[in-house]
Amino acid sequence: MSAQAFALPNSTLKVLQSVNRLQAVEATGMTGDNTSLKFDQICSMASSVFNAPVAQITLLEEHRQCIKTSLGFEISEAPTSTSFCAFTISSGKNITIINDTLEDEIFKHSPFVVEPPYVRFYAGSPVAFVGEKVGTLCVYDFQPREEVSHEQIEFMTKLARDAEAAIYGEQPDKALV
Questions:
Q1: Cβ atoms 85, 58 nearer than 8 A
Q2: Residue 5 CB: number of other CB atoms within 10 A?
Q3: Which of 47, 51, 169, 174 has the smallest number of Cβ neighbours within 10 A?
Q4: Would you state the pLDDT for residue 163?
């Protein structure tokens, strides 16, 4: 089946459109091209723990996913309409794991699965700012996985909290501006 058949659930699209969430994304001050050395370090650790060739930290606007750091795959943005990360922030879970994307009812027709880069495994944890889920820390692979260990899950959620701390650390002091 072609990638045109792919659509995220309406509940995911509604989360992306939340005014409070979009204001929080804007408030991070990170929707431009700026990157962070701390984000690079976090992605490197996530890639290592999952033995995954790709790790990213993303921010999700309503229609655009800004890739703040990407280790192993050169990309700076993607549409949220095809985003694993958009689903992750709307799932209500601390981590989303898709061991084999071709067997996943939501993503088996995703353009990222049926076309290059042919993602077969995804794990992502939401990253929040001022109480709103603004992005994710994620890893993906081009091979499916049998399982993910409890230790990997715990480490991923801890690294997502580190990404949150990095966002707060990069905020300009409003009193000084």
A1: yes
A2: 10
A3: 174
A4: 94
Please state the domain extents for the chain.
Answer: 3-169
Is the alpha carbon torsion for 36, 162, 12, 14 positive or negative? negative
- Any long-range contacts for 9-12 (C-beta under 8 Å, 24+ apart)? 9/87, 9/90, 9/106, 11/90, 12/86, 12/87, 12/90
**112-123 residue pLDDT tens:** 999 999 999 999
CATH number for the domain whose boundaries are 3-169: 3.30.450.40
- The HSE-up count of residue 17 (CA atoms within 13 Å, CB side) is 6
Structure tokens at 55: 């790790």
Q: Strand 54-60 relative to strand 96-98: parallel, antiparallel, unpaired?
A: unpaired
CA neighbor of 148 nearest in space, from 79, 78, 95, 81? 95
Burial of 142 (0-12, 13-18, 19+ CB in 10 A): middle
Asked if residue 50 lies in contact with residue 36, where contact means CB atoms within 8 angstroms, the answer is no
Report the side by side order of strands in the sheet with 54-60.
Answer: 77-79, 64-71, 54-60, 132-141, 121-129, 96-98
